[in-house]
Amino acid sequence: MALFDMPLPELRAYRPKIDEPDDFDAFWAKTLAETRAHDPAVSFEPVETGLTGLRTWDVTFAGFGGHPIKGWFSAPAHAEGPLPLVVQFHGYNGGRSLPHCWGMWPLAGFAHFIMDVRGQGSGGNVGDTPDPVGSGPSHAGFMTRGIDDPESYYYRRVHADAVRAVEAARSHPLADPARTVALGGSQGGGIALAVGALVPDLAAIAADVPFLCHFGRAVTLTDSNPYAEIAGYLKMHRGKEETVLRTLSYFDGVSFAARGSAPALFSVALMDQVCPPSTVFAAHNAYPGEKEIEVYPFNGHEGGAMFQEAAQLRWVPKALNSVV
C-alpha cells in the first residue's frame, strides 16, 4: 500500500460538487412512507448467550416492504432503563453474527442493537436475513442489484431497513430514544450517514471509514471491490453509465452527510484503497453539524480498528452529555 490519493491538506479542503437529483428528499420521503405503511411487527425474544454480564434478545422487525429483518438487542445484565442506545450497522457482506460478539457497548453501560443487512452474511460474520426482492442482470455482489432504477436499487431497501431498525431498537423498554447513536464501519458507516439524514433526532453518529460515498470518484479511482463491482457491471453493460450514476446519486453518502445535524465522529485511513480518503473527506467536509475526524495515515481499510473503537468509547459519552 502507499499514499495514492490527494495530500492531506487537499483532502481537508476537498468539497466536490455532487450530482444530486432534484427529487432526492421526495424520493426518500416516499420510500419511508411506503416502509412505515407496514406494521413494525417488532418482537424481542430472550436468548441465552452464556455471558453473565449482559442480557440479549433475538429481534425481528418489519423493514422495507414489510420484509422481516433480524438483529440482536443487548443490555447490561442488571441495568434498569432508560439506557443510552447504540444502533450499529455492519460491514459489507457481513451479518449480525452471534450475540456474544457484541459485548463492547453493553459493557460500557449502553443498550446495543446490531441490524442484520438483508441478503448478506456469507463473507465474514454470518447473517440470518434474506432479501426476497430479485433484480435484473447484476455483477457478483450487492452493488449493482437493481441498479437500473433507484426504485429497485438494493440500498433503497437497506437504508429503509436501517431507519426501521432505529425505530425498533427505540421501542425496547430499556432504550432511551433521546440518547440514540447510529454508528458503523465501512458499509456500516455509509448506512449510519444515511440514517443520520433520515432520522433527524439522533443524538450522535459515528462513521468509521465510510463506504457508499462519492460514487463518481470512487468507481474510477480504485479497482478494489466493492466499488469495482460497479465498474465491472459497466464494462459489460456498455452505454449504461448515465443510468447507473443517476441511480447512485440517490444513495450517495455525501448527499446524506450534507443533511446531517447530530454531532458526528468520522475516521479515515490514508492508504485505504477500498474507501479512498477523498471519498470519506467529501462526506466529512459536506457535514454541516458538529464533527471530528480521526486520521490514520499508514492504514488501509482496517482504519483505526481497536484504536477507533477506543476513540468512540471516549467520544460518544461526551456527545451524549449535550443531550438534554
Structural summary, described in words:
This protein has 324 residues and is α/β, with parallel strands linked by helices. It contains eleven helices and nine strands. The chain has helices spanning 8-13, 24-36, 104-107, 154-170, 187-198, 215-221, 227-236, 241-248, 253-257, 277-286, 306-320, and strands at residues 43-47, 54-62, 68-76, 83-89, 111-115, 175-185, 204-208, 264-269, 291-296. Helix 4 (154-170) crosses helix 5 (187-198). The model has no long low-confidence stretch (mean pLDDT 96).
Sheet with most strands: strand arrangement = 1-2-3-5-4-6-7-8-9
What assembly state would you assign to the polypeptide chains in this entry? single chain
Q: Give the terminus-to-terminus CA distance.
A: 45 Å
Secondary-structure-based class equals alpha/beta
Write the H/E string, N to C. Answer: HHEEEEHEHEHEHHHHEHEH
Mean residue pLDDT: 96
Strand count: 9
The number of helical runs is 11
Main beta-sheet annotation: 9 strands, mixed
Q: In what range is the share of β-strand residues?
A: 15-25%
Shape: globular
Helix content bin: 25-40%
Compact summary:
The chain is an alpha/beta fold and 324 residues long. The chain is built from eleven helices and nine strands.
Topology:
Blueprint: H1 8-13, H2 24-36, E1 43-47, E2 54-62, E3 68-76, E4 83-89, H3 104-107, E5 111-115, H4 154-170, E6 175-185, H5 187-198, E7 204-208, H6 215-221, H7 227-236, H8 241-248, H9 253-257, E8 264-269, H10 277-286, E9 291-296, H11 306-320
Parallel strand pairs: 4-5, 4-6, 6-7, 7-8, 8-9
Antiparallel strand pairs: 1-2, 2-3, 3-5
Helix pairs in contact: 2-4, 4-5, 6-7
